[in-house]
Amino acid sequence: MIDATRLEEFAQAVAAGTLEPAELVARVRAAAIVDAGCARLDGERALRCGAAEVVYGAGKTAGQIAEILRALAESCQERVLVTRLDEQKAAAVRASGIELTYRPGARIAYTGSLPEPDGDGTILVLSAGTSDAPVAEEACQTARFLGNRVKLVQDVGVAGIHRLLACGDDIARARVIIAVAGMEGALASVVAGLAACPVIAVPTSVGYGANLGGVTALLAMVNSCASGVSVVNIDNGFGAAYQASLINHLAGRGACA
Hints:
Number of strands: 11
Radius of gyration: 20 Å
């Protein structure tokens, strides 16, 4: 894998005359696809998109996950995030000789260490209730892996709105807010009415029958009357954190210059 720093070194070598332009092109092309046997991986995703290849653990065997992680390590991607990984699979991947840090509450694992936060501000994750915790944890762990400062505040649903209003300072200081809620999904609309930053709403499958496995919360969030709300799929804490991380790194990547 060629990251931005390595690519800059190659470019400087071309400018200095110590590397032929054709050789630079060949090296970049060679790193573009990583063949893991069971999967063809994107070795240049970090360079194009700002975050490297992520492994979706559900539906894959422990052997396949281990094979993918080895292939990425061989291509110099030392830090890899694995989402939706259960404890049994995580243990089996570890037993194959791969060093893995596992966070059971979030069903997330990663190789390597977490980076120092380099985002523009803090991502605030608010969850409506204790039952929403797994999705909120997935968002937190993903955001930290992507290099963000994260603050989690749990159990601030609108059924006791004074709990949310007590978080006014955190809401005012946040660069991005992730609002995680099931039931009728009202938390995101209320938060967006208080916040001056983007709010990413995550509907969860938590709720009684008419919640319809999260569809009710999803539709409520999509139809929010508050401005500045974007919505990801049901239970998709990873997707919300990825989006929040992109927003939180805009200034550092020159987009706001």
